[in-house]
Amino acid sequence: MLRVCVCVSGGGTNLQALMDAIDSETVTNTQIVRVISNNKGAYALERAKKKDIDAVVVSPKDYENRELFNDALLQSVDEAKPDLVVLAGFLVVIPPKMIQKYEGRIINIHPALIPSFCGKGYYGLRVHEAVLARGVKVTGATVHYVDEGTDTGPILLQKAVEVLPEDTPQTLQRRVMEQAEWIILPQAVNMIANGYGKDMRDK
Q: pTM score, two decimals?
């Protein structure tokens, strides 16, 4: 059984997609053991509690400096004893010591087709605003392993989504979630839980 710790900052729609996929047995051999948020008001915490999943807040506002916050975040992850850490809309820079400790065991969902529209400053609606500003016809989402760069780790899965002429950043964000993120994040977790994708870690 793959023990999964999910880190979130907001509404938790990707978390919900993963929980639903586990419930429907689309994702097998997987248990979410803890949900961690840096945001006390994140609705993702309520989603976890409804499923009786341990939900924890580790907010930088509660610590004197970033180093203390980073230590607390790593401790909270360690306590869950996860086999896999899933960053599902987690708007926090992951501390290098956490990346090193969980090397090959942290994945992230990014709302674009890496290497396009990724890296520092590309998160949330900013990604979709940039996509529309550039005028590309296709965007999508990527699940990748996390390394010490920003969106630079090995790619596990990608799915393309059409950009429509009438799109706003909000409508495009929603379509990318529905047609890509909510599909490939559970797929990636299922692959890892059942022994696929391991070779990607070594690239």
A: 0.93
